[in-house]
Amino acid sequence: MSARDADVLVVGGGPAGSATAARLAARGHDVLVLEKAAFPREKPCAEYLSPGVTDALRRLGALDAVLAAGPARLGGMRLVTAGAAWPMTYPDDDGPRRALGIPRPVFDAALLDHARARGARVRERATVLGALVEAEQVVGVQARVNGERMCLRARCVVAADGLHSAVTRSLGLDVPARWPRRLGLVARYAGVAGSLDRGEMHVGGGLYCGLAPVGHGLVNVGLVGALRFRPGREGSAAFFERRLRELPGVARRLAGARRETPVRGAGPLARRVRRVAGRGYLLVGDAAGFLDPFTGEGVYRALRGAELAATAVERALTRDDALPVGYARARRVAFGDKERVCLLVQAFLGSTALFDYVLARLARRQRLADRLAAVLGDYRPAAPALQPGFLGALLWP
Predict the structure, then answer these.
(1) Is the whole model's pTM more than 0.70, yes or no?
(2) 48, 213 in Cβ contact below 8 A?
(3) pLDDT in tens, 307-334
(4) Residue 157 bridge partners (DSSP)
(5) Which CATH code of 3.40.1190.10, 3.50.50.60, 3.40.50.10140, 3.40.190.10 fits the domain covering 6-75+100-177+270-337?
């Protein structure tokens, strides 16, 4: 066998890849991160990070670096429809929790620098083309670096290369996601009307739009609709701004505001895979599956998934075992209940009358609202929100 280029190859330098690399490098493993872009780089994202992200950053040792970048500290998320509103906050035993709003170029660069500081090697402008497989085992990747095609080898490959993962595609792991199939468009604005001390989510007409202050006077504006809703000849910017005007609350906020960045998009947003691990590899972050951005759990899942991935990889390396045993089960335990809550939210979104009804109930029932907010904020287990008693209190008069 050829000499290895690293113990672990991490494909993708976003939050999932950087956090996995940082953890493994800190434990003494030789880790090489392959990132196709040059940082800082833009990434379509709502840029609203739940309170659970703060906890994960603290465990990673990267919280101070992220806070030093000046993110907005947000007191919650206000959900708004034409017929109801719920001002969601994040209460906890020691006082209210906060979400963060921060541009992804700033956030991602801070995490990649953290991985470097922990000892990971990073190679930017390295495009991974697919997995390198020998005797039914992943032994590395095929990549293009500085225009040269090459094979890089490792004991384990961590695929953290996002919604359109080259590694999963090469291994035949992608499964068509039939529902929900949505497209997201985002841009940042300056001069947004009113004082925003929390995020806002406006829902109506088959669309939803999130407003997230991200510091330094900027607000991330993210619009999501069915995949069939997409720009035509008018172009992305004109289409984006026209559809934003269909949501009255958003239109009022953006009256007189100035768009500061190009409109960027991603879709389809839902993603499924056949399995999240196999001989010589595992998947983490969006590469391992993604449902929808409404509940904003993407970055939390990336960081929590990185904890699980690093543990599984280290166990496999220590035992000299090609298979990261227990990783798939650990993910089911960590994310299964929250995924079911997210599916319920998606079902509510499918009916305007039902969603209005649920928001009105939450606005009147503080204890119920607080329990759900803790689940959506990723700092309390999701299982209680699936219990018949909770759902009954939410849905029955």
Answers:
(1) yes
(2) no
(3) 999 999 999 999 999 999 999 999 999 9
(4) 9, 281
(5) 3.50.50.60
